[in-house]
Amino acid sequence: MNIFVNRPVNGLIEAPRRVAAGDLEPAGSRYSHDEIGQLARSFDAMTVDLAKARAELNEWAETLEQRVERKREQLRQADARAMAAAQMATVGKLAASVAHEINNPLAGIRTYARLLLRRLSAQGSLPADEAALEGLSLIESESARCGEIVKHLLQYSRPGTEQMADSDLNQLAREAARLIQHQTQVQNLRFQVELTPELPRVRCHPQEIKQMLLALLINACEASREGGGLFLRTRPGADGYACRLEVADEGCGMSPDIADRIFEPFFTTKEAGKGVGLGLAVVAQIVRRHGGRILVDTSPGHGATFTIDLPATPPEDPPSDARGGPDGA
Ligand code: ADP
Mean pLDDT in each 10-residue stretch from start to end of the chain (329 residues)? Predict the structure, then answer.
């Protein structure tokens, strides 16, 4: 008789010890129908609840760790971007003052080169003049190129003076496509323009948006091989933005190290004389002024897709960085 009473009681003494040692498995024994059995059942139920609570706590601890890690990473990225933005602001100021200084003498050089060219051409081209004519036209074209660089620098450092207008992005995309058409034919590219009908109108600087698309399309052409695909798309907005623009190519693509730096002013992988490294810095500036974001999806040998998201109306005070994270955050 003593054995029958002691067995459940012994179980009850053993159970708290197991729980204290961290074992939260219910005893699973058959319960007697008396008060001791009820006590054992309640104890087991409590153990199950405890196990559940412990699992939840563990899960929370893990989620919290992941969240802290994610926040830390976001802070690190924000910090790096703030540094880059400050650096860009300094470069911008420097660029503006240098560009102003250079602009006038440059215009003078071009004008005189043109004048001399015209005068020499009018005199009839003697053999000796051929070399002079060639030299002058080189001065003219090279100073025109410098003029372009200065124009880019000024665009980069100075907010646009153009009026904002409610614009049809499809129309702007069509105009940009028309401007690049010739180049795509020369390179024999498969150029596809895919426009989503009935996009909401976007309040923007139309010239700047066109200039941005053109810069992306020119880069895409330069990265493409003969016969490659080039795509210009308009899409409905995502993530709270009104509209999306996409420029994609099937060209050489970029490694992550390069893709990380392409929006920095003066970053270029092109040989001297071909690239200045300001195209994408200006693009990022334009996107920033419009309160949008720009993302790039690329890998070496697999082309590049630039995605620009624009809000219906730019904010009064645009954010200092337009680059979205890899997940579009
Ligand atoms: P630039 O064209 O004068 O070099 P950008 O600022 O326009 O200056 O571009 C910076 C760099 O980004 C380029 O030198 C190139 O390495 C890279 N890049 C830009 N667009 C593409 C693209 N579509 N495919 C591959 N690389 C690209």
Answer: 57 75 71 76 84 89 90 84 69 73 86 86 65 85 82 67 86 92 93 95 92 94 96 95 97 96 90 81 91 96 97 78 47
DSSP string computed for 215-234: HHHHHHHHHPPTT-EEEEEE
Report residues whose beta carbon is within 6 angstroms of any ligand 1 atom: 219-220, 223, 249, 251-254, 258, 262, 267-270, 275-281, 304
> Beta 229-236 vs 202-204: how paired, if at all?
unpaired
Ligand 1 probe mutation, 219, 249, 285, most atoms within 8 A of CB? 219
Atom of ligand 1 nearest to the CA of 220: 23
Domain residue spans in the chain?
Answer: 1-158, 165-310
The pTM score is 0.62
Query: In angstroms, rounded to a whole number, what is the distance separating the alpha carbons of residues 133 and 118?
Result: 9
CATH homologous superfamily for 165-310?
Histidine kinase-like ATPase, C-terminal domain (3.30.565.10)
Q: What separation in Å is there between the alpha carbon of 299 and the centre of ligand 1? A: 13
